[in-house]
Amino acid sequence: MTGRNSLQGTRRMAHITRQIGLSLGADICWPICFEAILKRLELAIPWQGDTLGFDVTRVTIEPFDLRQPVRYDLVIDRVTHWYYTSREWIKKAVVLNDTYVFNNPWSIQANEKHTTYCAMMRLGLRVPDTWMLPPKAYEQAADLQATLTRYARHFDLGPIGAQLGYPLFMKPYDGGGWVGVSKVDDEAGLRAAYEASGTKVMHLQSAVIPYEYFVRCIGLGPQTRVVNYDPDAPLHDRYRMDRAFLPPELQAELEDITLTINAFFGWDFNSCEALLRGGQWHPIDFANACPDSQVTSLHYHFPWLIKANLRWAIFCAATRRRVRHNLDWEPFFEIAAEDLPYHEKLRRYALLARQILDADGFGEFCERHLGHLDAVADEFFGTEQARDAVRQKVAALFPAHEVDEFTELFYGRIQRWRQAEGRG
User: Fold this and answer.
1) Which residues in the chain show pLDDT less than 70?
2) How far are the Cα atoms of 39, 315, 350 from residue 54, in angstroms, in the given order?
3) How far apart are the first and last CA of the chain?
4) Which of 9, 18, 110, 390 has the most CB within a 10 Å radius?
């Protein structure tokens, strides 16, 4: 009798496979590397009395029943910002099936660059002075003429440009990828740029010129990577390879800014562009919730991104992290309303951001369960499979006669990363 009762009080350890989905567009290189390294990790993580393994597959596009189950515990999304069928499937997966996705599809859809500027201005970040302009031209709509006749007011661009000062930048309020961005040096250039803007709603923004550094800070969960960036270089050379180029306090400040933005908007993966002038950071572009992930631009920094992606995906899938369906901005606004110096406010924002991103829990999880990732990734990035992933992406973008040259360039930069940082 005693033996039977004791057996009734025990539960056999189960082997559970967490499913990770990749929702992709034209991505080639990073999914290959992500999948290969995850397989090489051979994970068997003890978790709450069970053992967790992990499988990754690519999400397909097809008709779906809104009530059908979703197999994935987590989805890494790369197409929500432009491919709406996938976006709506992801929304269904979150709402009905508690799938974790990065990034939050509602936040991507609602919070374009204009909103992010306004929000971070309220938090006191040093966003350059910015104006919004009504569009130069319009698509015809039933009530358009009546609306414009009653409420649209003639305006003169000259005084606006003079107030902002030259040079300035004109750019779409919701844009990305440098599309539609123009540098304006004088009033004549401002008027010409506006005439050419068509139906786009545009921002005018003061230029931070000159500056000491143009930096991109990549945030993935609580992880950050600060990269020196040269916007005037060819695409394959814009991400510079120098490390530790900033004083530690300025690097930490930019990391705090990036995590504050990401936690505020519910973005797991985002990048923040900022200019350093006179010891002060000026964030200029930080609504990039589908950041560049390709080896042809990241090159040296590409392995860091793959490892960061793996760590955050495994952690979120293992712990069944839940999507924040409703963004709560009030704790940030309460800090903003206090009579505190800028750096103290930023310190508190960043502390709140790290709590939202569970930075402590993430760090403990990685230390306990993913200690071998550095060695596994380092070994992988020295393989022919890694070289072939680079080559496939190069072949998709470069003329045939340049494929060999640029494959070796990018793969060689990855080997440079292995020598400097490969083992963590």
Assistant:
1) 1-11, 177, 424
2) 8, 11, 31
3) 55
4) 390
